[in-house]
User: Which sequence fits this backbone?
Protein backbone atom coordinates (compact mmCIF):
# COMPACT_ATOMS: atom_id res chain seq x y z
CA UNK A 1 0.00 0.00 0.00
CA UNK A 2 2.83 2.42 0.81
CA UNK A 3 4.35 1.77 -2.62
CA UNK A 4 1.02 2.45 -4.33
CA UNK A 5 0.67 5.74 -2.47
CA UNK A 6 4.20 6.82 -3.33
CA UNK A 7 3.88 5.81 -6.97
CA UNK A 8 0.60 7.71 -7.41
CA UNK A 9 2.15 10.78 -5.80
CA UNK A 10 5.13 10.62 -8.14
CA UNK A 11 2.84 10.38 -11.17
CA UNK A 12 1.03 13.51 -10.01
CA UNK A 13 4.34 15.27 -9.43
CA UNK A 14 5.45 14.28 -12.94
CA UNK A 15 2.53 16.27 -14.36
CA UNK A 16 3.54 19.29 -12.30
CA UNK A 17 7.06 19.40 -13.73
CA UNK A 18 6.14 21.11 -17.01
CA UNK A 19 4.37 24.15 -15.48
CA UNK A 20 7.23 24.68 -13.03
CA UNK A 21 9.78 24.99 -15.83
CA UNK A 22 7.60 26.60 -18.49
CA UNK A 23 6.47 29.32 -16.10
CA UNK A 24 9.88 30.90 -16.60
CA UNK A 25 9.45 30.91 -20.39
CA UNK A 26 6.61 33.40 -20.37
CA UNK A 27 2.91 33.83 -19.64
CA UNK A 28 1.79 32.62 -23.07
CA UNK A 29 3.93 29.47 -22.76
CA UNK A 30 2.60 28.71 -19.29
CA UNK A 31 -0.98 29.24 -20.44
CA UNK A 32 -0.49 27.05 -23.50
CA UNK A 33 0.93 24.22 -21.39
CA UNK A 34 -1.92 24.52 -18.86
CA UNK A 35 -4.64 24.48 -21.51
CA UNK A 36 -2.83 21.71 -23.41
CA UNK A 37 -2.63 19.56 -20.29
CA UNK A 38 -6.35 20.11 -19.66
CA UNK A 39 -7.18 19.14 -23.24
CA UNK A 40 -5.06 15.98 -23.09
CA UNK A 41 -6.29 14.99 -19.63
CA UNK A 42 -9.93 15.08 -20.78
CA UNK A 43 -9.05 12.19 -23.11
CA UNK A 44 -6.34 10.51 -21.04
CA UNK A 45 -8.54 10.15 -17.97
CA UNK A 46 -10.80 7.86 -19.96
CA UNK A 47 -7.77 5.68 -20.73
CA UNK A 48 -6.85 5.57 -17.05
CA UNK A 49 -10.34 4.43 -16.13
CA UNK A 50 -10.42 1.99 -19.04
CA UNK A 51 -7.28 0.30 -17.71
CA UNK A 52 -9.02 -0.43 -14.38
CA UNK A 53 -10.53 -3.49 -16.05
CA UNK A 54 -7.13 -5.07 -15.50
CA UNK A 55 -7.46 -4.38 -11.77
CA UNK A 56 -10.39 -6.79 -11.79
CA UNK A 57 -9.41 -9.39 -14.37
CA UNK A 58 -5.71 -9.46 -13.50
CA UNK A 59 -6.03 -9.56 -9.72
CA UNK A 60 -8.66 -12.31 -9.77
CA UNK A 61 -6.66 -14.38 -12.26
CA UNK A 62 -3.51 -14.12 -10.16
CA UNK A 63 -5.41 -14.91 -6.97
CA UNK A 64 -6.68 -18.09 -8.61
CA UNK A 65 -3.18 -18.98 -9.78
CA UNK A 66 -4.25 -18.72 -13.44
CA UNK A 67 -1.21 -16.99 -14.90
CA UNK A 68 -2.31 -17.64 -18.46
CA UNK A 69 -5.55 -15.71 -17.88
CA UNK A 70 -3.49 -12.90 -16.33
CA UNK A 71 -1.20 -12.67 -19.35
CA UNK A 72 -4.16 -12.84 -21.73
CA UNK A 73 -5.97 -10.00 -19.92
CA UNK A 74 -2.78 -7.93 -19.98
CA UNK A 75 -2.32 -8.44 -23.73
CA UNK A 76 -5.98 -7.63 -24.36
CA UNK A 77 -5.70 -4.45 -22.32
CA UNK A 78 -2.52 -3.36 -24.05
CA UNK A 79 -3.92 -3.95 -27.53
CA UNK A 80 -7.18 -2.13 -26.77
CA UNK A 81 -5.33 0.77 -25.16
CA UNK A 82 -3.11 1.00 -28.25
CA UNK A 83 -6.16 1.05 -30.52
CA UNK A 84 -7.89 3.75 -28.45
CA UNK A 85 -4.72 5.79 -28.47
CA UNK A 86 -5.15 6.31 -32.23
CA UNK A 87 -8.14 8.70 -32.00
CA UNK A 88 -6.54 10.43 -29.03
CA UNK A 89 -3.34 11.11 -30.93
CA UNK A 90 -5.35 12.38 -33.89
CA UNK A 91 -7.13 14.83 -31.58
CA UNK A 92 -3.79 15.93 -30.10
CA UNK A 93 -2.51 16.64 -33.59
CA UNK A 94 -5.33 19.19 -33.88
CA UNK A 95 -4.32 20.91 -30.66
CA UNK A 96 -4.01 24.34 -32.24
CA UNK A 97 -7.54 24.27 -33.58
CA UNK A 98 -8.86 22.91 -30.27
CA UNK A 99 -7.20 25.78 -28.43
CA UNK A 100 -8.91 28.36 -30.62
CA UNK A 101 -12.34 26.72 -30.96
CA UNK A 102 -12.92 24.78 -27.74
CA UNK A 103 -10.97 26.93 -25.28
CA UNK A 104 -11.25 30.32 -26.96
CA UNK A 105 -7.53 31.09 -26.75
CA UNK A 106 -5.82 33.81 -28.77
CA UNK A 107 -3.76 32.81 -31.85
CA UNK A 108 -0.41 32.92 -30.02
CA UNK A 109 -1.51 30.62 -27.18
CA UNK A 110 -3.34 28.33 -29.62
CA UNK A 111 -0.22 28.00 -31.76
CA UNK A 112 1.90 27.15 -28.73
CA UNK A 113 -0.73 24.70 -27.50
CA UNK A 114 -0.65 22.89 -30.84
CA UNK A 115 3.14 22.58 -30.69
CA UNK A 116 2.92 21.40 -27.08
CA UNK A 117 0.42 18.64 -27.94
CA UNK A 118 2.25 17.45 -31.07
CA UNK A 119 5.54 17.03 -29.22
CA UNK A 120 3.82 14.90 -26.57
CA UNK A 121 2.50 12.45 -29.20
CA UNK A 122 5.70 10.29 -29.38
CA UNK A 123 5.32 9.40 -25.72
CA UNK A 124 1.62 8.50 -25.67
CA UNK A 125 1.83 4.85 -26.75
CA UNK A 126 4.69 4.18 -24.29
CA UNK A 127 2.56 5.81 -21.61
CA UNK A 128 -0.39 3.51 -22.38
CA UNK A 129 1.75 0.36 -22.26
CA UNK A 130 3.47 1.60 -19.10
CA UNK A 131 0.08 1.74 -17.39
CA UNK A 132 -0.70 -1.82 -18.54
CA UNK A 133 2.66 -3.29 -17.51
CA UNK A 134 2.55 -1.48 -14.17
CA UNK A 135 -0.83 -3.06 -13.43
CA UNK A 136 0.48 -6.45 -14.59
CA UNK A 137 3.19 -6.26 -11.94
CA UNK A 138 0.94 -4.67 -9.32
CA UNK A 139 -1.67 -7.42 -9.33
CA UNK A 140 1.10 -9.93 -8.62
CA UNK A 141 2.26 -7.99 -5.59
CA UNK A 142 5.38 -6.67 -7.34
CA UNK A 143 5.60 -3.00 -6.39
CA UNK A 144 9.31 -2.28 -6.07
CA UNK A 145 10.20 -2.58 -9.76
CA UNK A 146 7.42 -0.32 -11.15
CA UNK A 147 8.11 2.18 -8.37
CA UNK A 148 11.78 2.31 -9.34
CA UNK A 149 10.80 2.84 -12.98
CA UNK A 150 8.48 5.70 -12.00
CA UNK A 151 11.20 7.37 -9.92
CA UNK A 152 13.70 7.07 -12.78
CA UNK A 153 11.20 8.59 -15.23
CA UNK A 154 10.43 11.45 -12.83
CA UNK A 155 14.09 12.32 -12.34
CA UNK A 156 14.82 12.02 -16.05
CA UNK A 157 11.90 14.31 -16.83
CA UNK A 158 13.32 16.98 -14.53
CA UNK A 159 16.79 16.68 -16.06
CA UNK A 160 15.33 16.66 -19.56
CA UNK A 161 13.33 19.81 -18.92
CA UNK A 162 16.42 21.59 -17.65
CA UNK A 163 18.57 20.60 -20.62
CA UNK A 164 16.09 20.60 -23.50
CA UNK A 165 14.29 23.83 -22.61
CA UNK A 166 17.69 25.53 -22.51
CA UNK A 167 18.53 24.20 -25.99
CA UNK A 168 15.16 23.96 -27.74
CA UNK A 169 12.99 26.39 -25.83
CA UNK A 170 9.29 25.76 -25.29
CA UNK A 171 9.10 22.42 -27.14
CA UNK A 172 11.91 21.01 -25.01
CA UNK A 173 9.48 20.39 -22.14
CA UNK A 174 7.03 18.07 -23.97
CA UNK A 175 9.96 16.34 -25.70
CA UNK A 176 11.57 15.68 -22.31
CA UNK A 177 8.31 14.18 -21.08
CA UNK A 178 8.05 11.92 -24.15
CA UNK A 179 11.63 10.76 -23.66
CA UNK A 180 10.98 10.02 -19.98
CA UNK A 181 7.94 7.93 -20.93
CA UNK A 182 9.97 5.85 -23.38
CA UNK A 183 12.59 5.21 -20.71
CA UNK A 184 9.89 4.25 -18.22
CA UNK A 185 8.44 1.76 -20.71
CA UNK A 186 11.84 0.18 -21.36
CA UNK A 187 12.46 -0.10 -17.63
CA UNK A 188 9.07 -1.72 -17.14
CA UNK A 189 9.73 -4.21 -19.94
CA UNK A 190 13.01 -5.11 -18.25
CA UNK A 191 11.16 -5.37 -14.93
CA UNK A 192 8.60 -7.76 -16.41
CA UNK A 193 11.36 -9.91 -17.92
CA UNK A 194 13.17 -10.00 -14.59
CA UNK A 195 9.97 -10.85 -12.74
CA UNK A 196 9.09 -13.64 -15.18
CA UNK A 197 12.58 -15.09 -15.04
CA UNK A 198 12.50 -15.11 -11.26
CA UNK A 199 9.04 -16.66 -11.22
CA UNK A 200 10.03 -19.44 -13.62
CA UNK A 201 13.14 -20.16 -11.62
CA UNK A 202 11.12 -20.43 -8.43
CA UNK A 203 8.56 -22.60 -10.21
CA UNK A 204 11.29 -25.07 -11.19
CA UNK A 205 12.78 -25.29 -7.71
CA UNK A 206 10.08 -27.51 -6.19
CA UNK A 207 10.47 -29.96 -9.09
CA UNK A 208 14.24 -30.13 -8.65
CA UNK A 209 13.89 -30.42 -4.90
CA UNK A 210 11.36 -33.23 -5.20
CA UNK A 211 13.64 -34.90 -7.72
CA UNK A 212 16.61 -34.71 -5.39
CA UNK A 213 14.88 -35.54 -2.11
CA UNK A 214 12.37 -38.25 -3.01
CA UNK A 215 12.29 -41.98 -2.60
CA UNK A 216 10.24 -44.13 -4.93
CA UNK A 217 8.37 -46.83 -3.05
CA UNK A 218 8.37 -50.07 -5.07
CA UNK A 219 8.67 -53.62 -3.85
CA UNK A 220 11.51 -56.01 -4.79
CA UNK A 221 9.06 -58.04 -6.89
CA UNK A 222 8.27 -54.93 -8.91
CA UNK A 223 11.98 -54.44 -9.45
CA UNK A 224 12.39 -57.97 -10.79
CA UNK A 225 9.48 -57.56 -13.16
CA UNK A 226 10.62 -54.23 -14.41
CA UNK A 227 7.49 -52.40 -13.16
CA UNK A 228 7.27 -49.26 -11.14
CA UNK A 229 3.72 -49.40 -9.92
CA UNK A 230 2.31 -47.41 -7.00
CA UNK A 231 5.17 -44.93 -6.85
CA UNK A 232 4.98 -42.50 -3.96
CA UNK A 233 7.21 -39.61 -2.93
CA UNK A 234 8.73 -39.79 0.54
CA UNK A 235 11.51 -37.91 2.34
CA UNK A 236 14.98 -39.25 1.69
CA UNK A 237 17.06 -40.01 4.77
CA UNK A 238 20.73 -39.28 4.18
CA UNK A 239 23.68 -39.29 6.53
CA UNK A 240 25.12 -35.78 6.95
CA UNK A 241 28.76 -36.77 6.34
CA UNK A 242 28.65 -36.56 2.56
CA UNK A 243 30.46 -34.70 -0.13
CA UNK A 244 28.17 -32.05 -1.60
CA UNK A 245 28.10 -33.90 -4.93
CA UNK A 246 27.41 -37.30 -3.39
CA UNK A 247 24.62 -39.33 -4.97
CA UNK A 248 22.58 -41.89 -3.03
CA UNK A 249 22.09 -45.29 -4.61
CA UNK A 250 20.46 -48.57 -3.54
CA UNK A 251 21.58 -52.19 -3.78
CA UNK A 252 18.35 -54.09 -4.37
CA UNK A 253 17.51 -57.59 -3.33
CA UNK A 254 14.88 -59.74 -1.69
CA UNK A 255 16.80 -59.89 1.62
CA UNK A 256 16.83 -56.14 2.15
CA UNK A 257 18.71 -53.18 0.85
CA UNK A 258 22.07 -51.50 1.12
CA UNK A 259 22.32 -47.77 0.61
CA UNK A 260 25.52 -46.69 -1.14
CA UNK A 261 26.99 -43.31 -1.93
CA UNK A 262 28.96 -42.31 -5.02
CA UNK A 263 30.73 -39.02 -5.58
CA UNK A 264 29.23 -37.35 -8.66
CA UNK A 265 31.08 -38.31 -11.81
CA UNK A 266 33.65 -40.51 -9.92
CA UNK A 267 33.85 -44.30 -10.25
CA UNK A 268 35.93 -44.66 -7.11
CA UNK A 269 35.25 -46.31 -3.79
CA UNK A 270 31.75 -46.86 -2.53
CA UNK A 271 30.75 -46.22 1.07
CA UNK A 272 28.13 -48.73 2.26
CA UNK A 273 25.58 -48.73 5.05
CA UNK A 274 23.11 -51.52 5.66
CA UNK A 275 19.43 -50.80 5.93
CA UNK A 276 16.77 -53.42 6.55
CA UNK A 277 13.91 -51.77 4.68
CA UNK A 278 11.20 -52.87 2.29
CA UNK A 279 11.37 -49.77 0.13
CA UNK A 280 14.32 -50.26 -2.13
CA UNK A 281 14.69 -47.51 -4.69
CA UNK A 282 16.25 -44.11 -4.00
CA UNK A 283 15.83 -41.68 -6.86
CA UNK A 284 18.54 -39.19 -7.81
CA UNK A 285 20.23 -36.38 -5.90
CA UNK A 286 21.75 -33.26 -7.47
CA UNK A 287 21.15 -31.72 -10.85
CA UNK A 288 24.90 -31.77 -11.58
CA UNK A 289 25.50 -35.38 -10.47
CA UNK A 290 24.82 -38.86 -11.77
CA UNK A 291 22.98 -41.69 -10.04
CA UNK A 292 23.34 -45.45 -10.26
CA UNK A 293 21.00 -48.29 -9.27
CA UNK A 294 22.52 -51.63 -8.21
CA UNK A 295 20.65 -54.91 -8.39
CA UNK A 296 22.00 -58.23 -7.04
CA UNK A 297 20.79 -60.11 -10.10
CA UNK A 298 21.60 -57.74 -12.92
CA UNK A 299 24.40 -55.61 -11.48
CA UNK A 300 24.76 -51.88 -11.93
CA UNK A 301 22.48 -49.95 -14.25
CA UNK A 302 23.76 -46.41 -14.97
CA UNK A 303 21.21 -43.59 -15.12
CA UNK A 304 21.73 -40.36 -17.06
CA UNK A 305 22.23 -36.98 -15.36
CA UNK A 306 19.21 -35.50 -13.64
CA UNK A 307 18.59 -32.86 -16.27
CA UNK A 308 18.02 -35.60 -18.88
CA UNK A 309 16.68 -38.46 -16.85
CA UNK A 310 16.23 -41.67 -18.78
CA UNK A 311 17.13 -44.59 -16.51
CA UNK A 312 15.13 -47.82 -16.62
CA UNK A 313 14.80 -50.97 -14.54
CA UNK A 314 15.31 -54.48 -15.92
CA UNK A 315 12.36 -54.53 -18.27
CA UNK A 316 12.74 -50.89 -19.34
CA UNK A 317 9.96 -49.39 -17.18
CA UNK A 318 10.86 -45.82 -16.16
CA UNK A 319 12.04 -45.85 -12.58
CA UNK A 320 11.70 -42.18 -11.97
CA UNK A 321 8.83 -41.05 -14.17
CA UNK A 322 6.74 -39.80 -11.28
CA UNK A 323 9.59 -37.87 -9.68
CA UNK A 324 10.59 -36.14 -12.90
CA UNK A 325 7.15 -35.27 -14.25
CA UNK A 326 7.10 -31.76 -12.78
CA UNK A 327 10.61 -30.97 -14.00
CA UNK A 328 9.80 -32.25 -17.45
CA UNK A 329 6.79 -29.96 -17.64
CA UNK A 330 8.97 -26.98 -16.65
CA UNK A 331 11.50 -27.71 -19.38
CA UNK A 332 8.68 -28.22 -21.87
CA UNK A 333 7.28 -24.78 -21.03
CA UNK A 334 10.67 -23.19 -21.63
CA UNK A 335 11.06 -25.00 -24.95
CA UNK A 336 7.64 -23.84 -26.21
CA UNK A 337 7.82 -20.21 -25.05
CA UNK A 338 7.11 -18.73 -28.47
CA UNK A 339 4.31 -21.19 -29.11
CA UNK A 340 2.70 -20.19 -25.83
CA UNK A 341 3.08 -16.50 -26.62
CA UNK A 342 1.38 -16.99 -29.99
CA UNK A 343 -1.46 -18.94 -28.38
CA UNK A 344 -1.98 -16.27 -25.73
CA UNK A 345 -1.98 -13.55 -28.36
CA UNK A 346 -4.68 -15.41 -30.29
CA UNK A 347 -6.65 -15.77 -27.07
CA UNK A 348 -6.22 -12.06 -26.28
CA UNK A 349 -7.90 -10.96 -29.52
CA UNK A 350 -10.80 -13.41 -29.37
CA UNK A 351 -14.20 -11.67 -29.18
CA UNK A 352 -14.86 -13.20 -25.78
CA UNK A 353 -11.65 -11.77 -24.28
CA UNK A 354 -12.21 -8.37 -25.87
CA UNK A 355 -15.79 -8.35 -24.62
CA UNK A 356 -14.77 -9.15 -21.03
CA UNK A 357 -12.33 -6.26 -20.99
CA UNK A 358 -14.65 -3.80 -22.70
CA UNK A 359 -17.53 -4.56 -20.33
CA UNK A 360 -15.34 -3.44 -17.42
CA UNK A 361 -13.12 -0.89 -19.14
CA UNK A 362 -15.74 1.33 -20.78
CA UNK A 363 -17.73 2.06 -17.60
CA UNK A 364 -14.45 2.46 -15.72
CA UNK A 365 -13.34 5.08 -18.23
CA UNK A 366 -16.69 6.87 -18.17
CA UNK A 367 -16.61 7.06 -14.37
CA UNK A 368 -13.25 8.84 -14.40
CA UNK A 369 -14.42 11.17 -17.18
CA UNK A 370 -17.58 12.12 -15.29
CA UNK A 371 -15.52 13.10 -12.27
CA UNK A 372 -12.71 14.92 -14.05
CA UNK A 373 -15.00 16.94 -16.35
CA UNK A 374 -17.00 18.03 -13.32
CA UNK A 375 -13.93 19.68 -11.82
CA UNK A 376 -12.95 21.22 -15.15
CA UNK A 377 -16.41 22.81 -15.40
CA UNK A 378 -16.07 24.12 -11.88
CA UNK A 379 -12.92 25.93 -13.01
CA UNK A 380 -14.86 27.47 -15.89
CA UNK A 381 -17.50 28.73 -13.44
CA UNK A 382 -14.85 30.09 -11.08
CA UNK A 383 -13.15 31.87 -13.97
CA UNK A 384 -16.22 34.09 -14.35
CA UNK A 385 -15.93 35.35 -10.77
CA UNK A 386 -12.66 37.25 -11.11
CA UNK A 387 -8.92 36.74 -10.72
CA UNK A 388 -8.93 36.41 -6.91
CA UNK A 389 -11.58 33.70 -6.80
CA UNK A 390 -10.00 31.91 -9.75
CA UNK A 391 -6.58 31.85 -8.06
CA UNK A 392 -8.02 30.55 -4.79
CA UNK A 393 -10.12 27.93 -6.59
CA UNK A 394 -7.17 26.66 -8.66
CA UNK A 395 -4.93 26.46 -5.59
CA UNK A 396 -7.40 24.42 -3.53
CA UNK A 397 -8.32 22.25 -6.49
CA UNK A 398 -4.66 21.33 -7.00
CA UNK A 399 -4.32 20.50 -3.29
CA UNK A 400 -7.40 18.33 -3.32
CA UNK A 401 -6.33 16.52 -6.50
CA UNK A 402 -2.86 15.84 -5.09
CA UNK A 403 -4.25 14.49 -1.82
CA UNK A 404 -6.86 12.34 -3.58
CA UNK A 405 -4.40 10.75 -5.98
CA UNK A 406 -1.75 10.28 -3.30
CA UNK A 407 -3.97 8.70 -0.66
CA UNK A 408 -7.53 7.42 -1.28
CA UNK A 409 -7.04 6.71 -4.98
CA UNK A 410 -3.73 4.91 -4.34
CA UNK A 411 -5.15 3.00 -1.37
CA UNK A 412 -8.13 2.11 -3.55
CA UNK A 413 -5.75 0.59 -6.12
CA UNK A 414 -4.10 -1.51 -3.41
CA UNK A 415 -7.53 -2.50 -2.08
CA UNK A 416 -8.85 -3.48 -5.51
CA UNK A 417 -5.84 -5.72 -6.09
CA UNK A 418 -6.10 -7.37 -2.68
CA UNK A 419 -9.84 -7.91 -2.92
CA UNK A 420 -9.49 -9.28 -6.45
CA UNK A 421 -6.68 -11.64 -5.41
CA UNK A 422 -8.75 -13.04 -2.56
CA UNK A 423 -11.89 -13.43 -4.66
CA UNK A 424 -9.87 -15.25 -7.30
CA UNK A 425 -8.50 -17.51 -4.58
CA UNK A 426 -12.05 -18.31 -3.45
CA UNK A 427 -11.84 -16.56 -0.06
CA UNK A 428 -14.97 -14.37 0.24
CA UNK A 429 -14.66 -13.66 3.97
CA UNK A 430 -11.05 -12.53 3.65
CA UNK A 431 -12.12 -10.34 0.71
CA UNK A 432 -14.78 -8.69 2.86
CA UNK A 433 -12.29 -7.96 5.63
CA UNK A 434 -9.77 -6.56 3.12
CA UNK A 435 -12.45 -4.26 1.72
CA UNK A 436 -13.40 -2.95 5.16
CA UNK A 437 -9.76 -2.35 6.07
CA UNK A 438 -9.20 -0.46 2.81
CA UNK A 439 -12.07 1.92 3.47
CA UNK A 440 -11.22 2.27 7.16
CA UNK A 441 -7.56 3.12 6.60
CA UNK A 442 -8.28 5.60 3.84
CA UNK A 443 -11.08 7.31 5.73
CA UNK A 444 -8.95 7.63 8.86
CA UNK A 445 -5.97 9.12 7.03
CA UNK A 446 -8.08 11.66 5.17
CA UNK A 447 -9.80 12.64 8.42
CA UNK A 448 -6.38 13.59 9.77
CA UNK A 449 -5.73 15.62 6.62
CA UNK A 450 -9.03 17.44 7.08
CA UNK A 451 -8.24 18.20 10.71
CA UNK A 452 -4.82 19.60 9.77
CA UNK A 453 -6.36 21.76 7.05
CA UNK A 454 -8.92 23.22 9.44
CA UNK A 455 -6.24 23.92 12.03
CA UNK A 456 -4.12 26.01 9.65
CA UNK A 457 -6.74 27.28 7.22
CA UNK A 458 -6.10 30.95 8.06
CA UNK A 459 -2.45 30.74 7.00
CA UNK A 460 -2.64 27.92 4.48
CA UNK A 461 -3.23 30.31 1.58
CA UNK A 462 0.21 31.87 1.97
CA UNK A 463 1.64 28.74 0.38
CA UNK A 464 0.15 29.92 -2.91
CA UNK A 465 -0.10 33.70 -2.77
CA UNK A 466 0.95 36.73 -0.79
CA UNK A 467 -2.27 38.50 -1.70
CA UNK A 468 -4.34 38.72 1.51
CA UNK A 469 -7.55 38.56 -0.53
CA UNK A 470 -6.58 35.19 -1.98
CA UNK A 471 -5.54 33.95 1.47
CA UNK A 472 -8.90 35.01 2.89
CA UNK A 473 -10.88 33.24 0.17
CA UNK A 474 -8.81 30.07 0.64
CA UNK A 475 -9.51 30.17 4.38
CA UNK A 476 -13.24 30.43 3.69
CA UNK A 477 -13.51 27.58 1.18
CA UNK A 478 -11.22 25.38 3.33
CA UNK A 479 -14.35 24.47 5.31
CA UNK A 480 -15.81 22.80 2.23
CA UNK A 481 -12.48 21.26 1.23
CA UNK A 482 -12.04 19.70 4.69
CA UNK A 483 -15.44 18.01 4.35
CA UNK A 484 -14.42 16.89 0.86
CA UNK A 485 -11.22 15.29 2.13
CA UNK A 486 -13.17 13.00 4.47
CA UNK A 487 -15.73 11.97 1.86
CA UNK A 488 -12.92 11.56 -0.70
CA UNK A 489 -11.20 9.14 1.66
CA UNK A 490 -14.28 6.93 1.72
CA UNK A 491 -15.14 7.46 -1.95
CA UNK A 492 -11.75 6.61 -3.46
CA UNK A 493 -11.20 3.51 -1.34
CA UNK A 494 -14.74 2.11 -1.75
CA UNK A 495 -14.38 2.78 -5.46
CA UNK A 496 -11.29 0.56 -5.44
CA UNK A 497 -13.05 -2.24 -3.56
CA UNK A 498 -15.90 -2.20 -6.08
CA UNK A 499 -13.38 -2.35 -8.93
CA UNK A 500 -11.81 -5.41 -7.36
CA UNK A 501 -15.23 -7.06 -7.55
CA UNK A 502 -15.80 -5.96 -11.14
CA UNK A 503 -18.52 -3.37 -10.37
CA UNK A 504 -17.26 -0.62 -12.68
CA UNK A 505 -20.80 0.03 -13.92
CA UNK A 506 -21.91 0.76 -10.35
CA UNK A 507 -19.10 3.25 -9.82
CA UNK A 508 -19.81 4.98 -13.14
CA UNK A 509 -23.50 5.37 -12.27
CA UNK A 510 -22.61 6.63 -8.78
CA UNK A 511 -20.20 9.20 -10.23
CA UNK A 512 -22.76 10.44 -12.74
CA UNK A 513 -25.47 10.80 -10.09
CA UNK A 514 -23.16 12.44 -7.58
CA UNK A 515 -20.99 14.77 -9.64
CA UNK A 516 -23.29 15.62 -12.54
CA UNK A 517 -26.87 15.41 -11.32
CA UNK A 518 -25.93 16.77 -7.89
CA UNK A 519 -22.54 18.53 -7.90
CA UNK A 520 -22.57 20.51 -11.15
CA UNK A 521 -26.29 21.31 -10.97
CA UNK A 522 -26.23 22.45 -7.37
CA UNK A 523 -22.94 24.32 -7.79
CA UNK A 524 -24.28 26.26 -10.76
CA UNK A 525 -27.54 27.13 -9.00
CA UNK A 526 -25.84 28.27 -5.79
CA UNK A 527 -23.15 30.21 -7.65
CA UNK A 528 -25.26 31.89 -10.34
CA UNK A 529 -28.82 31.91 -9.01
CA UNK A 530 -28.37 32.14 -5.25
CA UNK A 531 -25.38 34.49 -5.50
CA UNK A 532 -23.06 32.44 -3.30
CA UNK A 533 -20.19 32.84 -5.72
CA UNK A 534 -17.19 30.57 -5.15
CA UNK A 535 -18.73 29.24 -1.94
CA UNK A 536 -21.66 27.96 -3.98
CA UNK A 537 -19.36 26.13 -6.40
CA UNK A 538 -17.54 24.36 -3.57
CA UNK A 539 -20.79 23.60 -1.75
CA UNK A 540 -22.03 21.89 -4.91
CA UNK A 541 -18.78 19.93 -5.31
CA UNK A 542 -18.92 18.84 -1.66
CA UNK A 543 -22.53 17.72 -2.01
CA UNK A 544 -21.79 15.79 -5.19
CA UNK A 545 -18.79 14.11 -3.60
CA UNK A 546 -20.86 13.12 -0.57
CA UNK A 547 -23.64 11.64 -2.73
CA UNK A 548 -21.12 9.65 -4.78
CA UNK A 549 -19.49 8.43 -1.58
CA UNK A 550 -22.84 7.35 -0.12
CA UNK A 551 -23.80 5.39 -3.25
CA UNK A 552 -20.40 3.66 -3.38
CA UNK A 553 -20.36 2.74 0.30
CA UNK A 554 -23.98 1.58 0.09
CA UNK A 555 -23.17 -0.62 -2.91
CA UNK A 556 -20.18 -2.05 -1.06
CA UNK A 557 -22.35 -2.85 1.99
CA UNK A 558 -24.72 -4.84 -0.22
CA UNK A 559 -22.02 -7.03 -1.78
CA UNK A 560 -22.63 -10.76 -1.42
CA UNK A 561 -19.08 -11.93 -1.14
CA UNK A 562 -19.71 -15.62 -1.74
CA UNK A 563 -21.51 -14.76 -4.98
CA UNK A 564 -18.60 -12.51 -5.96
CA UNK A 565 -16.12 -15.34 -5.43
CA UNK A 566 -18.29 -17.67 -7.53
CA UNK A 567 -18.54 -15.01 -10.21
CA UNK A 568 -14.76 -14.63 -10.28
CA UNK A 569 -14.38 -18.39 -10.68
CA UNK A 570 -16.88 -18.40 -13.56
CA UNK A 571 -15.10 -15.50 -15.25
CA UNK A 572 -11.78 -17.31 -15.00
CA UNK A 573 -13.30 -20.51 -16.34
CA UNK A 574 -14.37 -18.59 -19.44
CA UNK A 575 -10.84 -17.21 -19.76
CA UNK A 576 -9.36 -20.68 -20.26
CA UNK A 577 -7.25 -23.26 -18.42
CA UNK A 578 -4.41 -22.56 -16.02
CA UNK A 579 -0.92 -22.19 -17.38
Assistant:
Amino acid sequence: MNAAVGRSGRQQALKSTKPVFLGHQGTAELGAAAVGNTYINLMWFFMVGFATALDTLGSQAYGAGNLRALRTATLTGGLLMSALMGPMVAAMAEGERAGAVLFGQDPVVSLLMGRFCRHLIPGMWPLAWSVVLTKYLQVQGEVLLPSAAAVAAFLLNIAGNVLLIRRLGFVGSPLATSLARWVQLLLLVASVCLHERRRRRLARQPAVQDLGLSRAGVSPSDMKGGGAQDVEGAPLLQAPALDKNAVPAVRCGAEGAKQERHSGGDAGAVEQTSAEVDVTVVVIARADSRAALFDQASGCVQLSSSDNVGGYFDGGAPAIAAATEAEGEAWSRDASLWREAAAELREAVRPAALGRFLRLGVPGGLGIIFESVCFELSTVLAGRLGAVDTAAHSAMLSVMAFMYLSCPFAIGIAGSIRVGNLLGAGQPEASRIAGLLTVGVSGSLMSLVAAALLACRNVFGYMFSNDPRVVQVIARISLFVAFLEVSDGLLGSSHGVLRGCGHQITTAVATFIGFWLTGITLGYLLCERAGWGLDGIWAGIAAGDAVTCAVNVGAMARIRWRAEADGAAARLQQAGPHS
Q: What stands out?
A: The two ends are 28 Å apart (CA to CA). The chain has three domains: 1-212, 214-324, 350-579.
